[in-house]
Amino acid sequence: MSFLRLVVGDEFEWYGVKYAVFAVEPPNIRIQRLDGIMVVTDIGYIDLITSPSFNPLKVLRNKIIKQEDGTETTLRSVVDNLTDKQKEVIQKRFEMIKPVLLLEKIKQGDLKSVAVFNEYYSDLLIEGECITTLTKEKLLEAIKAKYKKSVRQLKRYLSSYLKEELNSPKNGLEGLVPDGYKTDVIRNDETVIQICHPHNKNLVLDTIKIRLNGEYGNLIKNVIENYYLKKRRPNISSTHQQLEILCYKNGLKPIPYETLYHIITHRLSVKVMERMRLGKIAEQKYDPITRGFTNEIAIAPLHIVEIDHTPLDIKLIDERTGQLLDRCYITLGIDLKTRMIWCLHVAFEPPSANKVQKAILHGILTKKTKKRYNTLNEWDMFGIPSIFYLDNGKEFFNSHVRTIIEEYLGAQVMHRPRETPNYGGTIERVFGTINAQLIHNLAGTTKSNVHELGDYDASKEAIFTLKDIEELLTVYITDVYHHKPHSELPLEFPTPTLMYYQGIEITGYPEIIEEQDEEEFAVKLLPKVIRTFSRDGIQFGNVLYNSSFASKYIGKQKKYTIKHNDDDISSIYLLDPDTSEYVSIPAQNPKYEDLKGMNRYLYNDLLKTLRETGKMNIKAIPGSRDLVKGIALLKERYEAKMKNNSSMKRKAIRAGFTLVTNQELEQLTVNKPTIKSSTDLEDLINEFNQELLEGK
Length: 696
Known about the structure:
Oligomer: single chain
Shape: globular
């Protein structure tokens, strides 16, 4: 996967002719022909890099390998093959050389690197020393004193990192992986335990390996999560007593004290233990010093981006039927230096790690708003920020969100201090501006409160769909908000766009991900879990994944790392331990074709309905016939409740259903369709489709 950044002097091909970058003049770039004519031409930067004929000559590409059955090898990742303990070693090595990497960027005039160095590594400067006069050798000596590593060793780390970066941009961490780690896979006699937050089982705190069978693994997980990590801070001896009781209740031989002692002291992360048991004391020790980020602190475009969510003050309707659906949620990211909007995500889905992931992806990629929405201007804020400034919602503390930011993007996370709402004032003001200047002027607005609303009936006046609002927001941000004077910007650059262009003239355009690599990059940001590959395949989320080409993984090792997309559960991505590449494996039961495009929200609701109605055993995996039956039953349930329930309609839309009209709904509630038993799946599907055509 390639990250591209054009600077003065870079060469490329455009419509088969060789050019070089002559000057960067945002929103344009000046290019010069190299075929003897030497003509200089101005062109929009976004127009150039998104042109199908644009071909950067110096970029290395890793193409997606298409296989016969439609699966893909899309991403190479040695780091994802490592345990959390091994990753800590890699991160420690990276922390040692990061000041040197920042110094190299500072020498090239990167203002963001100056800010990051002063924020985190000023202790490496001698009192009175200026960063602009600091040499690499002096810095290495300071790092040597801090970490007790020889300069020679530090240079080896630096060389390995830079060599890997040259071969595969943004994958420099792989150069810091010790050779022994690259072949250290999960053994057949080992069990992997994910230690989760006691009050949020979706938040994985640590992953440890033990050489005990799965039954013991579950008990150790239980006693660590629900006893040892509590704030009352029990010792290992009392924790072992709790484990002995659990072993006795489950008819298992007790685990020796020494075994549990070794697991807790050598396998469990000290940081996890102290964060859970020491509370605010641990926050002072581990959390970075967080200040209120202002325009004076954020010194360059994409230095600091703040992200948050809010429900919009407007009621929406269904696109096909016009039925009322209630409010949606908006996720925004704002660049604190320029006040440009970096990312946007609009959906009925409430705040979650999945929403944060989608918003981050939108922010990094080029938006192409002229092509998609026919805007007057281009939304030309894109790229990877140096710091993500986040609220304290649980979705922002999700381990996957942190992995995306720190491991995949090489950026840093900072959280708003607790109980200090004024620290989030920048993004809160943006939400207020969007509601006041756009949303409150649209039909169906709920205003900010009932007093402002007066006698206005938002439900009766609602006319906009989710797609309408997404388009209106995009146009407003691109053609209005980015070009209006902002009270917190300087007089010489009063609008977000002018402030951004001024910054780009100094720092250059940010790196982009080329269009052919966007799908690969999206896979990289997906959440991952560890699962067993048995003879039947991999079971995840009550779906069995397998294919003929994947049989080579049976018996090779016990556990594998997989990535999953909750918006389309028809396939997963398995990390091959030999090639460190993610390989797409389709669903086998239910079939890939039956699940294509189905999200996990709908699938889980569907399983719940089948089990409640006795159509499927609680532990069974549904087949094609079950899916058809379940969708029909679930659709019937939704339709029965949707008539006067806008939240139920919103859930139906989120599940992927198409709503029926009011007339169709009346027919359904009066004369509900029944599903007749049949042994032939094709007959059942045909009968179901025929009933839909007849409006039943």
